[in-house]
Automatic annotation (TrEMBL):
Gene3D superfamilies: 3.30.1110.10, 3.40.1190.20. PROSITE patterns: PFKB_KINASES_2 (PS00584). Belongs to the carbohydrate kinase PfkB family. It comes from Papiliotrema laurentii. Keywords: ATP-binding, Kinase, Magnesium, Nucleotide-binding, Purine salvage, Transferase. CDD domains: adenosine_kinase (cd01168). This is Adenosine kinase. GO terms for molecular function: adenosine kinase activity; ATP binding. One of its GO terms (biological process) is AMP salvage. One of its GO terms (cellular component) is cytosol. Its cofactor is Mg(2+).
Amino acid sequence: MAPIVVALGNPLLDIQVDPKHGPAYLEKYELKSNDAILAEEKHLPIYDDVVKNAEVTYVAGGAAQNAARAAAYVLPAGSVAYIGSVGDDDLKKTLQAANDAENVQSAYQVQPSPAKTGACAVLISNHDRSLVTTLRAAEQFTPDHLAKPEIAELLNGAKYFYIEGYFLTHGIESALEVAKGASAHGKTVVLNLSAPFIPQFFKMQLESLLPHVDILIGNESEAAAYATAAGHGDASLESVASTLAAFTKSNASRPRLVVITQGADSTLVASSSPSASPANIKPTDSNPKVYPVPKLASDKIVDTNGAGDMFAGGFLGALATGKDIDEAIEVGHKLGQMCCGQIGPKLSFPKQTVL
Ligand code: 26A
């Protein structure tokens, strides 16, 4: 089967540090407890440090790659492909094996040695996670990869495109190519804000891509970071969601949806045009529409790393099977919560029924 969902992002291997060491490493490397950043010079020793001095677990990561595995969880085998740049090394083999096991086609651009696959140190403290990323080969992605016949064929065949905001740190040209091509053909483009530093420091790239985006996904701190960057720091979450929904759109015949998650609190869905939105966002609904999140007992939470990605991938996978927005949000909530019960960005196997 030709994939109907294609995701684009930075492939990373997550190095999850045993939670008992989390707080000490946060302090040592001057990190916030709930954040996602690119490693600065002072952070670079952390990768060797945790491997030498703490217990670590290696887990397949990279925000869009996690979402791709979540979409694959709810779709028939062969429905999902993932594009990103890796090195020719053991880290890549681990990522590819995880994708193979979960029916995601890895359409990697492989950089020659000595380029190494990117990595993300994950520090857990309570229910927070701090992510410190070194992109390495991931940021060597070049647009010519998209023109290779087998990749062009993938892009032509797919109906849903998922781009992580993190990719905009280096890959705006490729992201624009994918999104413009998709929206010109009436296909659905989904963008995830990914982290507060994306709207904060990459606002120009974000706003150049946004006109081609049909569904924007983010969480409360990312939405707040956008509001501040756009000069409305005091706006409510509801009004930020509506502002983003109303942002210029190249394909104006389709409304834009903005989905804002808030951890255990309700998810908001704003639409630029409720009357034209997919089923279940009705003109009579509040805009944004509010979706309560089922309760998850605190002792069921192992760690929250990847929960937002699994929400997004589950939501997208459900939409791609033809579910409406209400059902897709429900599937997203289920996969997000399932991920909270696992170490790292993982889902439970054997598969549970979530659709
Ligand atoms: C450019 N940056 C910072 C990143 C990331 C990232 N994925 C792509 N680019 N920083 C962290 N992640 C991934 O986010 C997942 C959790 O949402 C981590 O690899 C982790 O699996």
